[in-house]
Write a sequence for this structure.
């Protein structure tokens, strides 16, 4: 870990350790060290530029959820040779984490509900010189909203109002308001990454027969909204419901990592997007023709139980932010009023 | 290997393949070929010899849940052709309640539960078996309470005096398999973990499980995090605080695109004399047959943490023990 503080053993140790320092040990000021000054954090809900804004958002979250815990589930990472210098190595880390928190204070989610939350986050961070200097993050917002006891569409409509109405509210991320950052890598060439990218591409071409070929019959699925599923039928239903809502949208694979590490099954992390019209019946109800950007991240673990003994996806973790999708739909249809 | 074995590439392939043939491809009669005629089959609900009881139960299940699927999740195994094999086979079982049956009038609801079957095989024939299925998970997903299902079962079997007794060690029928597993260190590690938990060292879970571990627990519950898992083990142990814990069979395995993993068959034998997962203490004599699987990963102290755990015991069978003792069967 050349260029990083000597106590970090490797990329997972750094990513999990920095997360703990910031969120659990309350060293939020250390973000000034760990987040580069011009850091861009893209999430489906917004594009946030500069670490001062990231620190402000961090404090707002902790004010609302003071007992927030963020245990890491996995770190799937790759080298970033293009940005390595004689002084520092560079990497891209795709971090899957659980968040537990109790909604004990008022904040962006409204008056405190006392509800206990459990949801996932997937965060892709570019790291170099002991700091994070580019980020893409998907939080399972629809799991949060459901666990707080709200209806997804009503809550999103209220959010637009709380943020000052359709004109003033925070704009969800799209390719039109994205800000380029220093990281331009596409991942690594490991075959497990290619296998996941190929499987997702086939699904997005509506070749749904890829599911019985590339997913384990008994696969465990951890899907948006905190929904757990099993096997081919549930995988088909989730991906069909998403694609059907945006049938002509352009599907892009942005980043692909595959890894084999000791004590872990082969695994992959893929960041992808859909960009196009809400033109079909599917997961988002009546088609509205709204122009929508869907940012997704998928992690997969492979195992030996595919057809004919071929490797197959045994555990899938996919996140999209359904509040950001509904926000784009409501802002277009005028349903925000 | 003899002719029967030769159809299969290896032992896990055999286990997964015959499960599919017998239970999903409706080749129920092939049970006669793959299973020894006098095989003892032990479940938390009781012990039977031969396949007649199993075949009848299978047909009953398929009549009530015709779309029932059994999907192999993992086969953790040990042994060799000379000594015989033992496979601990974890299955995801799903179905829709489309016809009236044991669970009452059809509800149209779907269930997804885990089953673990420990099967001993020699010369291509299964001749000894222990199986635990998440009966409480089916009940809960169909909108029923495991305690009520146990009560209904007792009533359907003719009341407290005539109902079939759940499995106890005294009722066991010895079979041909007498192995206790292998000496792989991952099995030893998991056996030590369960022993510590049952010695009420619940902090062990917080220290040695991955903080973000996922566990699938009876009642078809998915638990996330070592704290939730520690609490679940505590609720079980605290219901039977003085029960004797025993480990019967331990397998550890590594390799083949899988993380290191372990399979353990265990039991608690004693009295329902504490508050915990089974409500008010009743003093009922209880036997808990448990099988659990663990997968390890690198996130824990010293670079090893228990990352995934699948725990099976049968809540309905435990309630049956309790209700038969208290007589609250009406």
């Amino acid at each position: 870990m050349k260029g990083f503080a000597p106590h970090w053993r490797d990329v997972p140790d750094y990513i999990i350790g920095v997360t703990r320092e910031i969120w659990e040990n309350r060293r939020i000021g250390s973000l000034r060290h760990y987040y580069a000054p011009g850091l861009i954090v893209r999430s489906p809900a917004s594009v946030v530029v500069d670490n001062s804004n990231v620190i402000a958002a961090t404090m707002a979250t902790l004010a609302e959820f003071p007992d927030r815990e963020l245990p890491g589930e996995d770190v799937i990472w790759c080298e970033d040779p293009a940005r390595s210098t004689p002084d520092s190595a560079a990497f891209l880390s795709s971090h899957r984490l659980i968040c537990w928190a109790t909604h004990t204070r008022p904040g962006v989610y409204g008056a405190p509900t006392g509800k206990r939350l459990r949801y996932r986050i997937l965060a892709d961070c570019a790291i170099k010189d002991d700091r994070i200097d580019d980020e893409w993050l998907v939080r399972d917002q629809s799991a949060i909203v459901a666990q707080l006891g709200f209806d997804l569409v009503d809550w999103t409509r209220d959010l637009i109002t709380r943020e000052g109405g359709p004109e003033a509210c925070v704009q969800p991320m799209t390719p039109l308001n994205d800000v380029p950052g220093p990281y331009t890598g596409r991942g690594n060439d490991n075959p497990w990454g290619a296998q996941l990218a190929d499987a997702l591409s086939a699904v997005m071409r509506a070749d749904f027969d890829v599911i019985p070929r590339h997913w384990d019959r008994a696969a465990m699925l951890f899907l948006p909204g905190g929904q757990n599923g099993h096997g081919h039928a549930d995988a088909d239903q989730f991906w069909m419901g998403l694609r059907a809502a945006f049938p002509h949208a352009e599907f892009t694979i942005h980043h692909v990592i595959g890894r084999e590490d000791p004590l872990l099954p082969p695994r992959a992390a893929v960041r992808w997007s859909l960009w196009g019209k809400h033109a079909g019946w599917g997961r988002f109800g009546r088609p509205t023709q709204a122009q929508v950007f869907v940012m997704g991240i998928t992690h997969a673990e492979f195992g030996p139980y595919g057809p004919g003994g071929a490797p197959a996806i045994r555990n899938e973790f996919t996140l999209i932010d359904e509040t950001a999708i509904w926000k784009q739909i409501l802002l277009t249809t005028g349903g925000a009023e | 290997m003899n002719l029967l074995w030769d159809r299969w590439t290896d032992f896990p392939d055999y286990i997964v393949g015959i499960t599919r043939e017998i239970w999903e491809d409706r080749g129920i009669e092939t049970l006669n070929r793959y299973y020894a005629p006098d095989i003892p089959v032990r479940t938390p609900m009781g012990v039977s010899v031969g396949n007649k009881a199993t075949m009848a139960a299978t047909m009953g299940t398929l009549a009530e849940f015709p779309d029932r699927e059994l999907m192999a999740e993992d086969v953790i195994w040990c042994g060799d052709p000379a000594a015989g094999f033992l496979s601990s086979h974890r299955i995801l079982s799903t179905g829709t309640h489309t016809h009236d049956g044991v669970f009452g009038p059809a509800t149209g609801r779907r269930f997804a539960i885990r089953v673990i079957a420990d099967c001993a095989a020699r010369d291509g024939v299964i001749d000894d078996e222990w199986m635990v299925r998440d009966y409480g998970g089916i009940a809960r997903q169909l909108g029923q309470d495991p305690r009520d299902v146990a009560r209904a079962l007792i009533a359907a079997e003719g009341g407290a005096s005539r109902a079939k007794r759940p499995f106890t060690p005294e009722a066991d029928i010895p079979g041909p398999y007498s192995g206790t597993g292998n000496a792989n260190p991952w099995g030893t590690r998991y056996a030590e973990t369960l022993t510590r938990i049952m010695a009420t060292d619940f902090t062990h879970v917080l220290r040695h499980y991955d903080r973000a571990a996922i566990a699938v627990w009876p009642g078809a519950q998915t638990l996330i995090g070592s704290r939730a898992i520690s609490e679940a083990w505590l609720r079980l142990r605290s219901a039977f605080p003085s029960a004797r814990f025993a480990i019967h069979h331990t397998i550890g395995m590594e390799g083949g695109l899988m993380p290191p993993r372990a399979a353990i068959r265990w039991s608690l034998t004693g009295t329902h004399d504490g508050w915990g997962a089974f409500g008010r203490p009743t003093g009922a004599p209880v036997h808990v047959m448990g099988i659990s699987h663990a997968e390890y990963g690198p996130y824990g102290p010293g670079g090893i943490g228990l990352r995934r755990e699948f725990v099976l015991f049968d809540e309905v069978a435990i309630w049956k023990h309790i209700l038969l003792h208290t007589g609250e069967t009406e």
Q: What stands out?
A: Chain A touches chain B at residues 12, 16, 71-74, 97-98, 100, 118, 217-218, 228, 230-231, 261-266, 302-305, 309, 311 (CB under 8 Å). The first strand of chain A starts at residue 40 and ends at 43. The CA atoms of residues 275 and 293 of chain A lie 5 Å apart.
